What does this fold into?
Amino acid sequence: MSPWDIIYNFFPYIGGLISGALSSVLPGWAVYVIMALIGIIGILGFAITGNLAMVWAERRIIGRMQVRLGPNRVGPFGLLQPIADAIKVLTKEDIVPRKADKLLHFLGPTAFLIPAVLAWAVVPFADGTILTDLNIGILYMLAVSSLSLIGLFLAGWGSNNKYSLLGSMRTIAQVVSYEIPMVLSILGVVAIVGSLSMVDIVKAQNIPFIVLQPLGFIVYLIAATAELNRSPFDTLEAESEIVAGYFTEYSGMKFAIFYIAEYFNLLLVASIVTTLFLGGWRGPFLPPYIWFVIKIFLLFFFFMWLRGTLPRFRIDQLMALAWKFLLPLALLNIFLTGLGILAWQALGF
Amino acid sequence: MSDPVLVVVFYLISAITVVAALGVVLTRNIVYAAVFLVGTFAGVAGIFVLLNADFLAAVQLLVYAGAIAILIIFAIMMTRDTRKGSRSNEQRWPAFIMAVLMLAVLLGGISQTIWPVSVLAPLETTTEKLGKLLLNEYILPFEVVSVLLVAAMIGAIVISRED
It folds into this structure.
């Protein structure tokens, strides 16, 4: 193997070395468990590092977009700011309201974080660099991330605060509505590929699907932004109306867990868009995982750009957009994709 | 189901499912009942995974845990006084009799049925086969269900319209 091959297939190569070394001493199942643990730790490491980088980038870049400086005091260019934030949040007092439902209030952040972590199992960083290539990959991703709503509900209900409850009700209405166009917009891609596996979807993209599925891409991007509850769809924490929505009554590390889970979800949506529409890890010259990360961070910049420039929707405008605009567009996309596939087959390809 | 690991996992998931289901029925606070219901749905999804029905498992999570449970929760959020719990009323005894009858019918059905066990190896991918069966062999029931759902949807809209 040439050095370039090793760099190109870095993670499968390292994994092969470790499992080869382990299997000479340990039985097969132990090697399997250890390799899975290494994979999980690696992915969590990536997600947490990405999280810190995004917190820093978001504060700095949005600062620039709004003609401010952003945090620039802690370390060079303010690079140590996320670490300072993390230490601050860990040492803050954890306040639970006296009339809160203690159990639900405690479960809320956990139930929100778990789906955000679980979904990472099927993110394809490169060919062979994926925790498990399920043949229902994208469906698994959607199913698991639909569970995060329960965490938001528990948080809003358990706090026993009218603003928290209003925030959760808005979120549930919003996310349930946007889930429908989001799932339907993916169907076009699935129909073209003929598989739900994330790896198969990337391998089928000799041209990125954003070219073949522009409508699906736009619908997915808008619906996913709404699912993330990010600006311009952040009605659940509209501070001018309902204080901070479902996390009004949270402080310290519990608040931080919501924050972390939101960034995990953001990274996740960026990687789904990359996988489904932007050709995943594929690209010229650079190693595949580098391409994947570049595409994720370009999308992240796009989400920041939206947040820095667009005003917030009103809740009724938001629902109207989902049901009267995105849903018909997603259905139209499925119809056009079906026609396209039939025409393609009739032409004899 | 001969692999000991699978057997242990099966009993673990079944225990979680049954305990959560008991929680739904026995707890007085309906918010807790709804949360237990999510646990039951997730447990059933786990059993589907053990049966190599991966597509069904994902749909179980997406539709039942992710959508139906959420709609129930949404309805609960609109109700008042959930903290006092659901108190019994004059429907108590009729409900009890119906529940006992239902239990008798189910137990009878389960014990009388001969459960055939396929000796074939499980399918590697189920999604494609399910899709083809639904749109070829079982197209009529599929369409009937679709029409029923559309009718229910239109009905709901008509009922909730204010004018």
Q: What stands out?
A: The interface with chain A takes residues 31, 35, 38, 42, 54-55, 58-59, 61-62, 65-67, 69-71, 73-74, 77, 124-125, 127-128 of chain B (CB under 8 Å). The radius of gyration of chain B is 20 Å. The domain at 1-86 of chain B is CATH 1.20.120.1200 (Four Helix Bundle (Hemerythrin (Met), subunit A)).
